[in-house]
Recover the amino acids of this structure.
């Protein structure tokens, strides 16, 4: 039972790290999958395989190496010279995404609760600080609460789609996009999310170490991400093409139910933003601690304050400017990770 509890914790932490604001709102799923019609079902399958395979690969490597941060794994996979630059790019990306997530938290307060943006930022910042001082244990604990709630809303969305007159749209929708764009989408999506998730997956693998726990945790986590992607795609497809006009497509779907369900969904969106913020800041701090020799307790507040300064730019401008750049950078990382053999690189006495 203790081992299976650890498997669930690894699985939930993996899902919570990957499933951020774009996933919870439905915007990512709409942009990377649903608008491509019936073929999205196949590309979601590819995405699920990539998340499962490469997530397990990262955690097992980290456990075998007893990695302090993702830089150790990158140095092993790509060599010290290339690995150093990949880790630096990842560090910059993590800081950028931390700014985006903090800005997203402030936007939820401003747009949905009509509380000033700056107050939302400060409340999110303070909450993150008091949890991050506990380290990895806090990230695991928060995800064990948020991820089941996200899974519940996935089921609600599928149920709502099943009673819609257009319930079968996900099997019949056509698209005018080119095949290259359609089949490249799952690799871009997986690359960006996995490159960011390594900030938590590597320390998690080093902390757990148990091969079976990491294997089953990665397997169930990857499968859960795929299942939630498919559930959201089915729900969004039932409302195509009109659903594309909304900034928060899932909010439109849930809004039809009204009442307390809307408030719960708002809590889920904020929770997903918050867990991604925790994951990114934690991974970034561990990396800076290793690189600069500055204690985690000192560097963590500095990272949060830097993220706060960057979040003044605003949520939409940050997303539109940073995400395309990070996506292209992550593709190079994904290609190197996929084609690099790891068995020959590990010391035989391990």
């Amino acid at each position: 039972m203790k081992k299976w509890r650890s498997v669930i914790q690894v699985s939930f932490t993996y899902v919570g790290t990957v499933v951020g604001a774009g996933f919870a709102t439905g915007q990512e799923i709409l942009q990377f999958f649903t608008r491509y019609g019936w073929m999205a079902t196949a590309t979601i399958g590819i995405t699920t395989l990539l998340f499962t395979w490469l997530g397990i690969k990262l955690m097992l490597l980290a456990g075998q190496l007893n990695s302090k941060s993702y830089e150790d794994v990158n140095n092993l996979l790509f060599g010290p010279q290339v690995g150093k630059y990949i880790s630096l790019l990842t560090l910059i990306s993590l800081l950028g995404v931390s700014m985006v997530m903090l800005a997203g938290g402030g936007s939820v307060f401003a747009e949905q609760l009509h509380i000033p943006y700056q107050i939302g930022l400060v409340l999110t910042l303070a909450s993150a600080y008091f949890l991050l001082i506990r380290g990895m244990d806090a990230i695991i604990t928060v995800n064990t609460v948020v991820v089941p709630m996200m899974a519940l809303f996935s089921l609600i969305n599928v149920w709502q789609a099943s009673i819609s007159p257009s319930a079968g749209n996900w099997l019949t929708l056509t698209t005018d996009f080119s095949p290259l764009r359609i089949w490249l989408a799952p690799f871009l999506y997986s690359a960006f999310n996995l490159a960011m998730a390594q900030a938590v997956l590597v320390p998690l693998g080093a902390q757990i170490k148990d091969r079976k726990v990491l294997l089953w945790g990665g397997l169930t986590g990857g499968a859960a991400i795929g299942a939630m992607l498919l559930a959201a795609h089915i729900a969004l497809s039932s409302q195509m093409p009109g659903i594309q006009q909304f900034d928060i497509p899932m909010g439109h779907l849930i809004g039809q139910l009204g009442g307390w369900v809307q408030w719960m969904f708002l809590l889920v969106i904020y929770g997903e933003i918050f867990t991604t913020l925790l994951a990114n800041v934690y991974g970034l701090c561990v990396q800076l601690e290793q690189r600069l020799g500055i204690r985690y307790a000192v560097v963590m507040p500095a990272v949060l304050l830097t993220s706060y300064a960057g979040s003044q730019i605003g949520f939409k401008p940050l997303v539109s400017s940073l995400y395309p750049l990070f996506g292209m950078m992550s593709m190079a990382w994904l290609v190197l990770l996929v084609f690099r053999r790891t068995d020959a690189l590990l010391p035989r006495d391990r």
